[in-house]
Amino acid sequence: MKNQNPKKSSEKLVEKSTRYIDVFRRNIDKLMEENDYTIKETAEIADISYDTLKTFLYDKEAKDCRLSTAVKLARAFHISIDELVGAGTIDDHSLNNMQIYRSLPKGSRSLIDWHLHNQKFIHEKHKNKKIVNIMLPVCANSGNLKITSDYEPLHIEHMDDELFHKVFIGIQIPCLHYLPHYTQGDILLLANDRDAMRGENTVVVVNDNLAITNRVIENGIVKYYGIRDGKFRIAEPDNVEVLGYVAKILRA
Length: 252
Known about the structure:
This protein is an alpha+beta fold. It folds into 2 domains: 20-101, lambda repressor-like DNA-binding domains (434 Repressor (Amino-terminal Domain), Orthogonal Bundle); 128-250, Umud Fragment, subunit A, CATH 2.10.109. The protein has 8 helices and 11 strands. Strand 9 and strand 10 form a beta hairpin. Helix 2 (39-46) crosses helix 3 and helix 2 (39-46) crosses helix 4 (67-76). The protein is elongated and about 70 Å long.
């Protein structure tokens, strides 16, 4: 019998349909195909009978299945029932994050787990306070900002509620390479509720660097140019990871 940990839990399952039983069948077929499982192997892993699974999958007269069967099949492929039946009860953002998490190696998942618990600890420590996490990037000799896992919580009780609910992270400028725009110690508070408007800078991730850029639309293509030298950095949709636009600057 094959390893009971499936190789794949597809990111391309059928989603958001009111014909849940049809979606359920197609998704089970897709998962079995991607993991090279037979019906018998799937039934054994899910701890359900072969006849039950075969009837459910291929007997068009079978209109439904037990909830316990759905739970066992979801567990067998290490995914949620929502994903399996396309119910759409999990929002797209959360669902995408779940799928990315499962696709990562164990070490990366452990790092994410630690970060979540660390964030919980920080927010409990500063309970009833307005805080935002400030990343402390490293400045390379070239002036590029290297992403780090070093953060410090910043109290922002003075910030109005509308801005507070938009801002999700801050970046502290660690060098003088960004003069005259920003100086060492300035904190850029980022939001991602919309695209940057004219005059606002956008922070994008390029490899392991943070690039502070101007967002420009040229011939219908969104392009990002570095604020230090005006050089082209990256264009959409070429794997652009936009961290956010600079919603507020806290001067050093």
